[in-house]
Amino acid sequence: MRASIKLRETLEAAQVVRTLRPRPNCVFVSTLGVNNSWRSIASSLGFLAPTSTREYASSRSCGLAQRETNYFADRTHTCRFAENDVMIMHADTNRGIEVLLNPIYNKGTGFSLAEKERLGIRGLTPPRYFTIEQQCEKIWANLTEKGKTGMFRWRSMQALQDRNETLFYRLLVDHIEELAPVIYTPTVGEACLQYSRLFRRPRGMYFSADDVGHFNAMMYNWKNDVSVIVVTDGSRVLGLGDLGAHGMGISVGKLDLYVAGAGIEPSSVLPCVLDVGTDNEELLADPYYFGLPQKRIKGDAFMNIVDEFIQAVKNRWPKALVQFEDFSTDHAMPILKRHRENVLCFNDDIQGTAVVVLAGIYGAMAAMGKSPGAITEQTFVVCGAGSAGMGIVNFIHAALVHHGLSPQQAFERFYILDKHGLITSNRELKEGEPGVDDLRPFAESRRDLPDGINLREVIESAKPTALLGASTVSGLFTHEILTRMGELNKNPIIMPLSNPTSRAECTAEAAANATEGRAIFSAGSPFDDVSRNGVTMVANQGNNLYVFPGLGLGSILVGSNYISDGMLNAAAEAIPKTLHDGAIRRRAIYPRIADIRNVSVKVAAAVMKQAVDEDRENRGGKIGHMISREGIEGLERYVRSSMYYPEYRPTVFSPGSGRGTL
User: Fold this and answer.
1) Which residues are catalytic, by number?
2) How many CB atoms lie within 10 A of CB 301?
3) What count of other Cβ atoms lies within 10 Å of the Cβ of residue 278?
4) Judging by DSSP bridges, how do beta strands 421-422 and 520-523 pair with one another?
5) What is the 3-state secondary structure (H, E, C) of 4-31?
6) Which tens digits make up the pLDDT trace of 231-244?
7) 607 to each of 66, 336, 444, 565, 631, how far by Cα in Å?
8) pLDDT band at 80 (very low <50, low <70, confident <90, very high)
9) Are 311 and 533 in contact (CB under 8 A)?
10) Is the peptide bond preceding residue 500 cis, with omega within 30 degrees of 0?
11) Which of 9, 191, 232, 538 is within CB 3.0–4.6 Å of 325 for a Cys-Cys bond?
């Protein structure tokens, strides 16, 4: 009787304690193990070794059992319910310490008593139980202590992912606004610079030039089914240049955001790097660089390696989405054009960035009280004719045509400048140079002004409503230029898109000062909001995170084998629709990153609907029927119900493994 009372008191008194490291260096013996076995005592309390969360909660006499499952009942999210799932261990996993050493299965101090018995880990973790929410609170308090740097947070998050994957993603979901800049840009850039030295645990797959001819077989070394692949060759990592095999940090970070932002299953993502060497002399001289220590392969040999990779993906996972990331300017567009109709794929640097910019323009239309179709009334001056700039221009051009202009009318709405000034029909464009084919129709449509005139002269002649920068020339948008934009427009659209901040064409403060805070401003880098004369100009930031998670999720769910311009435009139009009236009145043109999962639902549903309209659905008509029966709201419910949400699931052994039972 005394033991029973002690058990009940211990269970009811469970409080937050430190999260156990995955490799305990001692055995914990609690009063639960004195004199009587847990099973006999628990049985006297009506607590009969449950094997599922629902059974556990049904033992009403056990206060802890109720505490363990209350968070299910109180949940505010509406994603797939994890308590209806179980975590089935791989047949090769043994009971005991192996469970705690595996980040997929480890819960630290979040194992129930039933699981401890079932998995053979009783005594290997502290006796007190605490929820995933309590674990998150403790770790978040540590991460946000005063003086902790971005790199400290990045390394702490990597260590957490190494020991408890579910907790890692839960923390990322709960604090996505604060942690996205840590998991991805800008902090991941700092991590990529020293990735070889920070390397602790392999993630993803490395396909090197030494492996040519074996890619197809290598794919089968990855045992899980894969839905999303992010691949880079590390040739143009953020604004840092050629980082070779260190580009793996980009692929890993991007896919972490897929999981957190769109609810893609962690087990179904695969980060990849194509290691074809590097031209970075510092890396080649680094004795600890873990990539191929050779000069980068180029030309046809490089394209053949990309081709072999894509074919190997198609053979192994024919329905997987491939996202190209941080390929150099001379390769990014050719690779996309070469494989866009060959595999479900897109390039985030080109298409993702273009969608974000277009979404910002649609948001600007909303801020001015206009519909998305009002984009046809706009005139654009674009500084920068590289792959990024032309990717944006081409996509806005497609949107103008989508909303009713003829292709020629749409070409005439653009004034494009490079370092030599305005590009017109008189400019000699050399065949074979990167981007020339995309630039040519815009140049040939510009016959009304002299070639090479400067930005100030273009502004005076064109009287644009929108000024976009993709030039990487700091301060290009001078006070004179910005002031004139403010004189020509009540709410001029100013978008200095170049990264990093040091290369932005202007700052938010400069735009606010020149336009008295009336500009609709969006940058590629973060700036603070600016107030002038009682008017606050919101410093919007275009972030690709608004696009790629929902775009990828929608493409997968609808079963499309191609991401069309129409699907991309649908994603762009969906983003500003998530803004509430107060945000629109403040001239905010993007939602908060904290709302990213809701944004992804809207984007995915819009992409799926467009795919159905274009007859690209490959789900046997299921999605089209759902839309006709339940409308877009029903489709959004379906998307949300398909999203992974990180919470602890009852852990069991694989049936027939001989190590445990369901």
Assistant:
1) 184, 254
2) 11
3) 26
4) unpaired
5) HHHHHHHHHCCCCCCCCCCCCCCCCCCH
6) 999 999 987 899 99
7) 41, 19, 33, 10, 14
8) low
9) no
10) yes
11) 232
